[in-house]
Amino acid sequence: MPEPLSARCPFCHRLGSDRVCGACRSEVYLDGVSALAPYGNPVVRKALQTWKYDGDREIEKVLQQWLTAGAAHITPPLAPFHACAVPLHEGKQRQRGFDQADVVAQWASGLYGIPHTSLLVRKTKTASQAKRAGGSRQVGELDGVFHIRRDVAVPEHVLLCDDVFTSGATIDAAARTLKEAGAKQVWGWVIARGR
Ligand SMILES: [Zn+2]
């Protein structure tokens, strides 16, 4: 079991709370992020990379045990939430055979006894869009990447699940899509956080 993380604003790393701080709040859509372990921990990083890139699903047992042991420390505030994954785009999921964020959402659902709902679809960026970004990350680059699935009602409180939180750009783009569709609170829930 990796050492627990200190509570910080996930975007500016200000210590004190996992909730997005007052200074960052006007810039982002997520309300906060609960994370189990530091991504800088070599054991955590290796476990996640083995899972994600080598497709080794045996490692899931270890990851799930870590989450179960740490669940009390990373319980999101203000339940009830619906667990939802930050989805891979379909091509990537086909290639990998599974979507690790969706597995994390299933675990959150089981641990907290909350519904697990697939709310989002991820579109592939076209080559021309990638070119326009000039090879560097720009504000708005992820606009329009996520869409709400047809025929789903967006719940008020969403626990947005993924394996890793680093810059937060992708998960925040997903949070934006959910909030624009009516979600009142979107809280991130990840195995590892960059800092
Ligand atoms: Zn902040």
Overall description:
It is a single chain. It is built from seven helices and six strands, in the order H-E-H-H-E-H-H-E-H-E-E-H-E. The protein has 195 residues and is α/β, with parallel strands linked by helices. It has one domain (22-193): 3-Layer(aba) Sandwich (Rossmann fold), CATH 3.40.50.2020. The strands form two sheets. Strands 1-6-5-2 form a four-stranded parallel beta sheet. A two-stranded antiparallel sheet has the order 3-4. Helix 7 links the parallel strand 5 and strand 6. It is globular, with a radius of gyration of 16 Å. Residues 9, 11-12, 14, 20-21, 23-24 line the site of zinc ion.
List bound small molecules.
Answer: zinc ion
Extended strand count? 6
State Rg. 16 Å
How many domains, as an integer?
1
State the helix count: 7
The CATH topology is what?
Rossmann fold
Q: In a nutshell, what does this entry contain?
A:
The chain is of the alpha/beta class and 195 residues long. The chain has one domain: Rossmann fold (3-Layer(aba) Sandwich), CATH 3.40.50.2020.
